[in-house]
Amino acid sequence: MKEIILDKTNSKIIGRSLLLGENRWVALSGAGVAFSFRGKYLKITLLGSNRSHVTGDDSEYARFAVLMDGVRVLDDVIDRPKKSYEIIREEKIKICEIQIIKLSEAPMSAMAIAPIECDEEAVISPLTPKMHSIEFIGDSITCGYGVDETLAEDHVFSTRTEDVTKAYAYKTAQLLDADYSMFSCSGYGIISGYTGDSEVRTADELIPPYYESQCFSRDDFGEAGKPDKLPWDFSEYQPEVVVINLGTNDFSFCQDTEWKQEEYRQKYTEFIKVVRKNNPKAYIFAVLGLMGDGLYEKLCQAVADYTEHTGDIRIAAVHIPEQNPEDGYAVDWHPLPKSHTMAAEVVAGAIRETLGW
What we know:
22% of the residues lie in helices and 29% in strands. By secondary structure, it is an alpha+beta fold. The chain has 2 domains: 2-126, Jelly Rolls (Sandwich); 132-355, Rossmann fold (3-Layer(aba) Sandwich). Strands 1, 2, 3, 4, 5, 6, 7, 8, 9, 10 and 11 form an 11-stranded antiparallel β-sheet that branches. The chain has a 5-stranded parallel β-sheet with strand order 13-12-14-15-16, sandwiched between helices. Helix 3 (168-175) packs across helix 7, helix 4 runs antiparallel to helix 5 (258-278) and helix 5 crosses helix 6. The protein starts with a strand and ends with a helix. 47% of the residues are buried.
């Protein structure tokens, strides 16, 4: 048997991650690796969250999936510091595509993909990049919060019920046959995270302060420490499109108060400039509406202000219809897969119409 460290020479790196020694640290929803495999034996080993194993909170373990030729063959949470799985054990050579994807979001836990173990004759190589590429920036909607439960108003958060592959962003990438990267945290916003009291701003749950880092997580990346202290190298992934879906949580704070909505507009415009600085060639789509469109008018104004001040016309606002109650709700009134599919079709349609994909 031999061990292979997963790096850019042998794997397609999906989303933001950090190779530290032999281990590739992953936190964000949808992040992971993908490679072609030719061999008889394959075992993967994953290292679990340092934080959640210390706290003992089994609702925050990292959830992941392994796909073989696009079919999910493993779906589990890392409930101890180290777990290994035999994915392939064959007498004859097997040729397939393997993906290892983190299904749950970054704030609760990180995980590391250790070197894979395979037979001596096995060969792995990166999957071919797709023709198009997208980055998604968002909140719980992007993460697939609670999508595997139908609890509606019951706040029973668990990473076990999160699945980014059932959420609109992942589905949009699939519809467009595009590579993707995601930067999302449930409850986060532009000027405030979700709040149950509109008089109280959740000022520490914002996407802009973390966007230029690896990610935000209460966990760490092994010896490298907190991922929000580690800058992200944007040259690693320059997407053709950036989709921003932020404002649902801000509305819980803003409501119909004009000065709050104006602050959202101003800060949204500033964030667009940060996104543009780091993604100079991308077309930016600012989208909102799946869980309410209370700030959509201000979002449109922010886009118009940005274009007026910069002359940059490679940006558009896209309205997503609100989820249909008849389609049901996931945890905390979040969308179920059917609603996510509707949103994906809207966003993918806007990208196709604008860019001719």
